C-alpha cells in the first residue's frame, strides 16, 4: 500500500523522539512532496509545527519562549534558506534536521532495485498525489525495470486496468482525437511523452524527428496493409512501412476483431483512408493482389465492382487466386468489413448461380440488380 511510505517516515521520526530530553527536528521538504500528508503522521511524544517563509521570527519566539518543553517536528514545505537569510540557523545548531527522499521510500517499499531509483526520481511529480500513487501500487508490478515502471505510470494516466503498453496505445488511439489528445497531454504533464515515443520506436518501429499521433497511426495502417498486400505499397506510402511490423499486426488484429473497439477502428480506418487517398492509390492494383487485405472498407468496393463487371459480361469462369465468384463473396464476407457488405455479396453470389444455371442469360431485371 502507498501508505507504507508514510509509515516509514513515521517510524523514523518517532525514533528521533524516543529520548527523555526535548527535541526539535526540522524537515525542509524542498519540493513539498509531503505537504498534503504531513498532518496524517502519527507522532508519539511530538507535535507538528508548520513553518512558513514569513513566520520565522515568531517560530523562534514560540520554540524558545512560549513553549520550551514540547518536542516538535518543524515542517517546512520549501527549501532550507541560506545561512544569511535563515533566522532559525542558531536554533538548527542545537536541533536535528530530517531528510525524507520520496523516491528512496518508494523504491524500498516496492522492492525496486537501487539502480532504478533514478527512474522513480525522474517521475517523482507523478507520485505527488495519493490517488495516482495508490493506482501505481494497485497494478502490482512484479519485475521493475525502466520500461515496466514507465509503462505502469502511463497505464495509470490512461486509466487502464493492467500495466500494458498495448493498452496505453489503444486508449491513446481510440478514446480521443489525434489533435490535442488529452492522454498525450497527461503524459506530457508528467514528462512521460519522450518515454511514450521511445516505446513506439522500440516496439512498433515508428520514429520521427517530430512524432505525432496521426503519423503513428498512419504507420500502423500502412504497415498492416503491406503485410497482406501482394507486391509493394504505393510509392507515397513506403516511408510509413515499419521495420517492426509483427507487433503492429498483432495489435491491429486485436483492435479490428475486438467487439469493444471495432466500431472505433472503423472510424479511424475511414479517417486514414481519406488521408492516404486509398481509393485512388489502390484502384489500379490487380484485385488478386488485394484479396487478402481488409484494412479499409473501400477495398471491398473494388471487389464488388470487379464481380459486377464479370457478371454483366456473363463471365462466370472468372477467378481470383483460384476462387470463383461465390467463393470470393464468401471469403470477403468473412473479412473485417464483410458484415457491412453482406447483402451485396449475397446478391452477387445468387446472381452468379442464376446466370450459371443452364446457360441462363442475364435479363434486364437481373442487370438492374447487379448494377
Q: Give the proportion of residues in helices.
A: 40-55%
Number of helices: 19
Strand content: under 5%
Mean pLDDT equals 92
Low-confidence stretches: none
Q: Helix and strand succession?
A: HEEHEHEHHHHHHHHHHHHHHHH
Strand order of the largest sheet: 2-3-1-4
User: Any idea what the shape is?
Assistant: rod-shaped
- Class from helix and strand fractions: mainly alpha
How would you characterize the overall build of this protein?
The protein has 371 residues and is mostly helical. It is built from 19 helices and four strands. The protein has helices at residues 4-16, 56-66, 89-93, 102-110, 117-122, 130-138, 146-157, 165-174, 182-189, 193-204, 213-228, 245-257, 262-276, 278-282, 287-290, 298-312, 325-333, 342-356, 364-370; strands spanning 24-28, 47-50, 72-76, 96-98. A four-stranded parallel β-sheet has the order 2-3-1-4, with no helix packed on it. Helix 2 (56-66) links the parallel strand 2 and strand 3 (72-76). Helix 11 (213-228) packs across helix 12 (245-257), helix 16 runs parallel beside helix 18 (342-356) and helix 17 (325-333) runs antiparallel to helix 18. It is rod-shaped and about 110 Å long. The relative contact order is 0.06.
